[in-house]
Amino acid sequence: MIACSSKLVLGYSVVESLPGFEGPLPFELETGWVGQLGILDSSSSSSLFVHEYIVHLWYVGVDKSEDVQLFYYFVKSESNPKEDPLVLWLTGGPGCSAFSGFAYEIGPLNFEANQKEGSLPTLVLNPNSWTKVASIIFVDLPVGTGFSYGMTSIASQSTDLQSCDQAYEFLRKWLIDHPDFLSNPVYMGGDSYTGITVPIIVQLISNGNEAGIKPLINLKGYLLGNPSTTPNDRNYAIPFAHGMGLISDELYECIDGVETSQILEPSCGFASPKPQELFTERRYVDEKNIELVVHQPSPCDSSRVSPPNFSNKLLPI
């Protein structure tokens, strides 16, 4: 978390400033705890009030013994929270923190780009936040992601199906604790690897509603961004590229006529590299890619349009 100044008021903390944000916060930042949800201590729960929307941060225990503690950020809609959709958003990986979705994708706060090397990251409001039209719960899932954790070695282990079960239980417990949102339309959302888990969670919610498990969830649909699905879906990459005009008709017809099991020899003839040559070229490409990944752009690099990742510069409370 980001270091902050706060004062203690009746068992919870009100944060008045954040490093990187000039002057007093134009919103109320509150930290506290919710005991009935398996909170361990007063440091494991907080709520953040931001301008016209509200952000809550705390742990929700899942599983019968509540050995799994899931951390989340909740941002209340800026428009009409009583009627606007409620979105449960998961980040991919698996293992990417919900903070990524909160601060780099669809949440209300962003880090300002073009920071000077070594300077304190600057926080700014995100004018394109989805919280302008929806209330969003960002969850650290699976267990071990972000601030979510297991209290035992067994609880710290998780499969995709276990994560889906925990997400469903999380949502049910969250709605029980926030009954004002029981009537809101609910959407599941996520990106990348959650293309595998989100549909399963949606099915669990639907099955639970049909079985009459309370609370009933007003499920309306789900949305996925650049989702992972199955390896078979990758076969559509070339037809898609052709349909979008990214590759020519001539190249597409050539590719379409190639026997994939003979991609190296002999169908491609002299134009195809020998296996050893191919390995050498691929190794060269891999090395170049690694250089691109570890390259740190200079502060004056105007080609960088996305905010830099400051996750390694956050300070402990």
UniProtKB/TrEMBL annotation:
Residues 299-317 have a biased composition (Polar residues). Residues 298-317 are annotated as: Disordered. It holds the Pfam family Peptidase_S10. GO terms for biological process: proteolysis; secondary metabolic process. GO terms for molecular function: acyltransferase activity, transferring groups other than amino-acyl groups; serine-type carboxypeptidase activity. Belongs to the peptidase S10 family. This is Uncharacterized protein. It comes from Camellia sinensis var. sinensis (China tea).
